[in-house]
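We close this part of the discussion by returning to an individual protein. The amino acid sequence and the backbone structure tokens for this protein are reproduced below:
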Amino acid sequence: MSSPISVDLPHSLGIEEARRRIAGGIGRLKDHIPGGTAEVRHSWDGDRMNLFVQAMGQEVSAHIDVHETVVRVEVLLPGMLGFFGKQIEGLLRKQGSVLLEDKSKS
């Protein structure tokens, strides 16, 4: 059984800029996943990014919906990872704004 997590990240960037920033930083996601062997795949469908992360024998799927003033991150945790749902949700709320940082100025 999977456990869903949904987190809203408010912003004032507008849809296009928020999308640009998310797209510019998604390649760095695997650097933040323990184990060093993570596989990250993503695709855009309009203003929704579909995201799949495979690491340590688990696959996590997520959707990132970009709206004018909010980005909604929905993560589906499989099996045992569901036990860490509250911690993962807290981390997303605390660190989620990293998704919207301007990587082109780094």
